[in-house]
């Protein structure tokens, strides 16, 4: 639909589409549908040649005026070898958890184990996708842990709502774990696909357990915005069946 | 894969039922050959520069991404239901700015715009017209004649 606005203003557009059904309905001027997972419109991280093939096909449509055009990209995204074999195993051995779950101590312990791998990931990629909430990773853990325990500390960043602060902290924590875990191949030399990283985070880490606990606490809130946060903005649909370990 | 049959029923059902609005007449604009064009990216992934205002619930505004600031992007999109680990490993899988620059260097496109723009795609695009019109003016000032819209 955005394409209609730009094109009507005289700007030639081309869309990449991840959901073919939507493109069939919207009828944007030029669309390349790609059969990739949501979040990866160019198909494959770290594969410049594959990404170039997608871009080349998309931009190639710009010279056409027989609109609307909906073309299918002919290749699936390359599958990591792990999808066909025994599966990725996180290369980092995390410390054994304490019982009962102590959010601050357990998660900060994991962070310490993961820190040097996270440093390596940042060095290797020249960037990080963490820090969206503008807190250090330790501040992030302490702030989330307090809310998970049912305390209500204010947002430490001026002008940021509590819902935004908590959901961005949650994403930063996930990003920190995923970046650290993918700094090197898995134990068996395999690269992880997105569902393997998600399953590892949500089922095997205390960081994941902290976010499950936070979501459960938020769902009990009297504040509708906090309840919505707990229901929809912390745990993905595909991981929502999990319960926190106490 | 974003084939509906490959997604969980919750996610597939949500996507299947999403209102896409009435189909309007498809407008068409034209430009020179691809190797003469200046390209800009428009992403709906809720990307913001680190420290910039995050996108909030119902956001219909946009953020500006200068070409030289692309390494400092974070995702502030509301949804937890798309993969972010690809972006964490390589931003080009979501925001292919380095790939565009390579295509410009190779002469496959003319040049890359100075500024790119991002929206938060969880909001209804029907409410983004005013923002899109503002961006259209800015893109024209930047002499852009190839707009690549990238979803998430």
Task: Assess the beta-strand content of chain A as a share of residues.
Answer: 5-15%
Alpha-carbon distance between the two ends of chain B: 12 Å
**Helix-and-strand structural type of chain A:** mainly alpha
Q: What is the strand content of chain B?
A: 15-25%
Mean pLDDT of chain A: 94
State the helical fraction of chain B. 10-25%
Low-confidence stretches of chain A: none
Please give the largest β-sheet of chain A. 3 strands, parallel
Query: So what's the oligomer here?
Result: heterodimer
What is the tally of beta strands of chain A? 3
Number of strands of chain B: 7
Strand count, sense and barrel status of the largest sheet of chain B are: 5 strands, mixed
User: How are the strands of the largest sheet of chain A arranged?
Assistant: 1-2-3
Count of discrete alpha- or pi-helical segments spanning 4 or more residues of chain A? 9
* Chain pair with largest interface: A-B, 87 and 84 residues
Percent of residues in helices of chain A comes to 40-55%
* Mean of residue pLDDT values of chain B: 92
Q: Which structural class best describes the helix and strand composition of chain B?
A: alpha/beta
How many domains comprise the coordinates of chain B? Answer: 1
Question: Strand-and-helix sequence of chain A, N→C?
Answer: HEHEHEHHHHHH
């Amino acid at each position: 639909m955005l394409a209609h606005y730009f094109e009507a203003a005289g700007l030639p557009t081309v869309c990449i589409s991840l959901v073919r059904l939507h493109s069939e309905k919207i009828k944007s001027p030029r669309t390349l549908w790609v059969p990739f997972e949501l979040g990866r419109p160019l198909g494959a991280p770290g594969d410049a040649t594959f990404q170039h093939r997608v871009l080349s096909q998309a931009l190639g449509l710009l010279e056409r005026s027989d609109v609307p055009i909906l073309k299918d990209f002919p290749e699936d995204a390359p599958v990591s070898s792990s999808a066909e074999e025994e599966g990725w195993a996180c290369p980092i051995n995390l410390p054994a958890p304490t019982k009962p779950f102590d959010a601050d101590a357990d998660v900060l312990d994991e962070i310490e184990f993961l820190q040097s791998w996270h440093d390596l990931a940042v060095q290797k990629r020249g960037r990080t996708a963490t820090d969206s909430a503008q807190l250090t990773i330790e501040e992030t853990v302490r702030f989330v842990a307090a809310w998970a325990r049912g305390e209500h500390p204010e947002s430490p960043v001026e002008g940021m709502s509590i819902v935004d602060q908590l959901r961005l902290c949650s994403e930063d924590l996930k990003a920190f774990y995923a970046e650290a875990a993918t700094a090197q191949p898995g134990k068996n030399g395999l690269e992880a696909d997105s569902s393997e990283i998600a399953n590892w985070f949500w089922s095997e880490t205390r960081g994941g357990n902290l976010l499950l606990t936070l979501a459960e606490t938020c769902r009990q809130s009297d504040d509708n915005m906090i309840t919505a946060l707990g229901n929809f903005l912390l745990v993905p649909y595909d991981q929502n069946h999990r319960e926190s370990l106490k | 894969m974003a084939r509906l049959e490959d997604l969980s029923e919750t996610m597939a059902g949500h996507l299947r039922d999403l209102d896409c609005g009435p189909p309007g007449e498809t407008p068409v604009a034209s430009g020179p050959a691809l190797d003469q064009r200046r390209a800009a990216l428009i992403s709906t992934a809720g990307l913001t520069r680190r420290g910039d205002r995050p996108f909030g619930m119902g956001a219909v505004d946009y953020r500006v991404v200068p070409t030289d600031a692309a390494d400092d992007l974070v995702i502030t999109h509301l949804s937890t239901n798309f993969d972010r680990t690809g972006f964490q490993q390589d931003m080009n899988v979501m925001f292919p700015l380095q790939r565009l620059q390579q295509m410009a260097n190779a002469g496959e496109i003319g040049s890359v715009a100075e500024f790119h723009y991002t929206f938060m795609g969880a909001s209804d695009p029907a409410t983004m017209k005013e923002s899109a019109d503002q961006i259209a003016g800015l893109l024209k000032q930047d002499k852009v004649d190839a707009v690549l819209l990238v979803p998430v």
